[in-house]
Design a protein that fits this description.
The protein is of the alpha+beta class. It contains 10 helices and 7 strands. The strands form 2 sheets. Strands 3, 4, 5, 6 and 7 form a 5-stranded antiparallel β-sheet that branches.
Length: about 280
């Protein structure tokens, strides 16, 4: 039985994805009425696609292009549309894209990405009202183990961290038997993030946290251990160490904004100095 004749999609995709493809950039691969789709249009649209995912996406691109051209053709012919207005808006949008891309290229070259500890502290102190906690931050130790795990009685003592060596005992234990484990003595975490992992029921959240509660219970074949080591009250200022990444991003955003303004002002000033502006 003779094989099916390859479709246009298949030929385009095979050639596009082949390292030795013969299609030239100016070669037409599809047309609708008076519009042509060139090979270069497809390669531009799919330059960052892998061979594994590009076949279906390029096929979808061609389909979308043909559908758009059909609708655009009939809109031009029968839509009673002011083409001059469309052209004006398109030019305005093109200029915005050009300016934005140019600014981004300049920002990449000029942006100082180093943010010092002093800058972070200064920003935090100046904008401390922006860092009010909406919920409790806590430092906790949390362990989840199967009910048939060994030495549950020992774990029941260790998780309370009464002795300095308890945490090391827990770390050794959880590496062998724990289903889930969390402990970070340096960093804070929202209490609600912890409760996503633990089926806590019928607790007074405020009292539970502020009393630095320790709790052990079993449910659905597992033991849960939770120890509130420290906390920060909601509505209080969030600790600076919890906000470092947030502050860094804010500082970067401010630098980027200022750079955009500086780039614009430099170019406008230069145009004035060169007498490049003539108003008739």
């Amino acid at each position: 039985m003779m094989g099916r004749k390859p479709t246009l999609y298949t030929l385009v995709l095979i050639t596009l994805l082949s390292c030795t493809g013969d299609l030239k950039d100016d070669e037409i691969v599809a047309s609708v009425y008076d519009a042509n789709l060139y090979h270069s249009d497809i390669t531009k649209a799919s330059y960052n696609l892998s061979k594994e995912d590009s076949i279906s996406l390029v096929k979808e691109f061609i389909k979308d292009w043909t559908n758009t051209q059909i609708l655009a053709y009939h809109s031009r012919k029968n839509g009673n549309i002011d083409l001059d207005e469309i052209d004006y808006k398109a030019e305005q949008y093109r200029n915005m894209l050009l300016i934005h891309q140019f600014q981004n290229n300049e920002i990449l070259k000029r942006l100082d990405t180093v943010i010092t500890k002093k800058e972070i502290e200064t920003y935090y102190n100046k904008h401390i009202k922006d860092f009010q906690l909406k919920d409790y931050l806590v430092k906790v130790i949390y362990v989840k183990v199967s009910e048939d795990a060994p030495d549950i009685d020992k774990l029941s003592k260790w998780y309370k961290l009464r002795k300095d060596e308890d945490i090391e005992s827990i770390k050794k234990y959880v590496s062998l038997y724990a289903t889930n484990f969390y402990y970070d003595e340096e960093n804070w975490i929202y209490f609600d993030e912890i409760t996503k992992e633990i089926p806590l029921q019928d607790i007074n959240k405020d009292r539970f946290i502020t009393r630095k509660s320790e709790i052990k219970f079993s449910e659905n074949g597992y033991y849960y251990f939770l120890n509130i080591i420290d906390y920060k009250l909601k509505d209080a200022a969030s600790p600076i160490e919890f906000e470092i990444n947030n502050i860094k991003q804010r500082i970067r955003n401010t630098r980027i904004y200022n750079l955009r303004e500086k780039i614009n002002n430099e170019l406008i000033q230069s145009a004035h100095e060169q007498n490049a502006i003539k108003i008739f």
